[in-house]
UniProtKB/TrEMBL annotation:
Domain M23ase beta-sheet core as annotated: residue spans: 73-164, 248-342
Signal peptide stretch: 1-23
Protein name: Peptidase M23 family
Species: Leyella stercorea CAG:629
Phylogenetic classification of the source organism: Bacteria, Pseudomonadati, Bacteroidota, Bacteroidia, Bacteroidales
CDD domains per record: M23_peptidase (cd12797)
Superkingdom as given in the UniProt entry: Bacteria
Listed InterPro entries: Cell_wall_metabolism_enzyme, Dup_hybrid_motif, M23ase_b-sheet_dom
GO molecular function: metalloendopeptidase activity
Keywords: Signal
């Protein structure tokens, strides 16, 4: 059985390499930027990409000295200087290289790991369809628009743009050392991560602006929080196990009913949406003031890494994945990597905020004073 599979794999490989490279893309694939990748989800509706397995020379930021900004629709604008060379992010085969009336010259490279990378607004392309390129190889010269030199860069799976911050740090230009789990949903690709936690701090577009760059302490008067800027994570729940105690419980357990809607406590960015040991299906959201909230044991997660969420937005359904004996939400509040009692913020009986002011300090201190 194993040998049969292996032989089949070898046969498939031979078939692929024997196909004349120039003709491996259909006319539509050579014309359209967003087009599904044949066979990508034919065997399974999910696959993994281990970014940590890449060697340093197997990755390049498209414009290594450029300044990258994440714009709407998961496009990264990388601004740089006149004449700069655009580099291929990973090795792969050029699927599209042509001029569009609105975006100038564009290139799409199909990579063996299932990703496609898109480089648009080029002044000139220096590769052609079917050409194999190495990571870091020059593929185009950056183009100009409105006096600004930039490349519009995006990453696609099956013709759909994914959040590029799941793959690279927008500010740091670094490849994230983790595993991407890519799942096909009805009309989008869900990307979650396993391994190294994604640090979104380097992207100004996210609401993780650190209040401690200007000051060393931050007073957070919970009573001044306006309606809609906060939410009790599991509306209608009662506490079945408090924080701390003899078993040093790292959060508070909240219970309503199975598959009930869990909501984001505050606005923020999803930095984790994956299975994590005893936590089962887990979500971590990073908030503007350095605070993070964690939600676990979900039956289902409804957000993906990189999603911006609003306070009160439904992010998952209660379940008992991981180490859980009943359907509930295990909710944690974390500041500068340290867990603290969620009741410094929430008053569980009223499911409201405490009438208190929290003092957060740059080095991770958190104290509560009643108003
Ligand atoms: Zn718990």
């Amino acid at each position: 059985m194993r040998i049969k599979k292996l032989l089949l794999a070898i046969a498939t490989l031979t078939l692929v390499s024997a196909t004349p490279v120039k003709h491996q893309f259909t006319a539509a694939e050579q014309q359209q930027i967003s087009i599904s990748t044949p066979g990508l989800f034919s065997r399974s509706n999910a696959f993994n990409i281990d970014l940590d397995a890449l060697k340093p020379n197997e990755y390049s930021f498209p414009l290594p000295v450029g300044k990258a900004t994440l714009r709407k629709n998961n496009v990264v604008e990388i601004t740089t200087k006149d004449g700069d060379a655009v580099k291929a992010m990973f090795e792969g085969t050029v699927r599209l290289s042509r001029k569009y009336p609105d975006t100038g010259y564009a290139i799409v490279i199909r990579h063996r790991n299932g990703l496609e990378t898109v480089y648009a607004n080029n002044a000139e392309n220096v590769v052609e369809v079917g050409q194999h390129v190495r990571a870091g190889q020059t593929i185009a010269i950056v183009g100009q628009r409105g006096g600004k030199f930039y490349c519009d860069f995006s990453i696609m799976i099956d013709g759909k743009r994914i959040n590029p911050t799941a793959v690279v740090g927008i500010g740091s230009h670094r490849l994230h050392r983790h595993i991407l789990l890519c799942e096909k949903q009805h009309n989008y690709i869900n990307v979650s991560t396993i391994g190294e936690k994604v640090d979104f701090d380097d992207s100004k577009d996210f609401t993780t602006e650190d209040v401690f760059t200007k000051q060393s302490t931050y007073k957070w008067n919970l009573e001044e929080m306006k309606k809609g800027t906060w939410a009790y994570p599991l509306p209608g729940a009662k506490v079945i196990s408090p924080y701390g105690g003899r078993r040093r419980h790292s959060g508070v357990d909240l219970k309503t009913k199975p598959k009930d809607e869990i909501v984001a406590a505050f606005d923020g960015v999803v930095t984790r949406s994956a299975t994590h040991y005893g936590y089962g299906l887990c979500i971590v959201i990073k908030h503007a003031n350095g605070l993070e909230t964690l939600y676990s044991h979900q039956h289902k997660n409804l957000v993906k890494v990189g999603d911006k969420v609003k306070a009160g937005q439904v992010i998952g359904l209660t379940g008992r994945t991981g180490r859980a004996t009943t359907e509930h939400l295990h909710f944690e509040t974390i500041f500068k990597g340290r867990r603290f009692n969620p009741n410094l913020i929430f008053e569980h009986n009223s499911r409201g905020l405490q009438k208190a002011t929290l003092t957060l300090t740059k080095n991770g201190g958190i104290t509560q004073k009643r108003n």
